[in-house]
Amino acid sequence: MGFFEQYRVLLRKDLTREFRSKEMLSSMGIYALLVLVVYGAALSQTSKGLDILQMSGGLIWALIVFTSMLGLNRSFAFEKEQGCLEGILLAPIDRSTIFLSKATSNCLFLLVVELITVPLFAFFFLGGVTLAPSWPLIVFPLLLGSIGIAGVGTLLSTITLETRGKDVLLAVLFVPLLFPLVYACVAATTGCMVGSEGFMTTYLRSLLLAGGYDIIMLSLSWALYDFVISA
Description:
Blueprint: H1 3-21, H2 23-43, H3 52-73, H4 77-81, H5 84-90, H6 95-125, H7 139-159, H8 166-194, H9 199-230
Helix pairs in contact: 1-6, 2-3, 2-6, 3-6, 3-7, 3-8, 6-7, 6-9, 7-8, 7-9, 8-9
C-alpha cells in the first residue's frame, strides 16, 4: 500500500469509529457547553459598560483550547485500551502516516465542535452587539488555529500516552507550546469581529504568524513522530 492509501485507511478507521460511538465529539461538545455556562456565570455580574466584543476573541480561544485538550486526551484511548496501537506499529506502515491521519481526524473533530459552539457563543454573549462587516473572516484564524492545535496536540498526546497523570502533563506541555498560535489567533479573531480602523494589517500579520507556526510545528512533529511513537 502506498502512502496515501495507508493514510486513507487509517483516517477512515478513526472517523468510522468516532461517528459510531461519538465518544469524543459528545464529550467535547458537552464540555464546551459547560464552559459557556461558566462564562455566563462569570460575566453575569459585570458592569453594563463592559465591552464584551473586545473580549470575544480571547473567550472563544480559551473555549477552543480547553475543549481541544479534552479531545486530545482521548485521542489514542481506543487504540491503547483495545491493543490496536501495537497492531498498527507492527504493520509495515510509515510512522508519519499515523501522525498525519490522527492529526487530521483530531482537526476535523475540533472543527465540528467549533461549528456548534462558536455560533452558540455569539448567540448568548454577542446577541445585543453589532459585529463588524468583516466578522466572516473569523473562519481563517479558526482554521489555522485548529490545524496547529491538532498537529501539536497529536504529538504531545503520543508523548504523554504512557505517563502517569497524562492529563496534567499534556496541559503543562500543551498550553505554553501553543501560546504563539493562540496569541496570533486571538488577535486575528478580535480584529475581524471589532473591525477597527486599520485592523486588516493586524489581521494579516496575525494570520502570517499563525501560518508560520503551523508550518514549523507540523514539520517538526512530522519529523519527530517516528522517534516519539517508537520510544
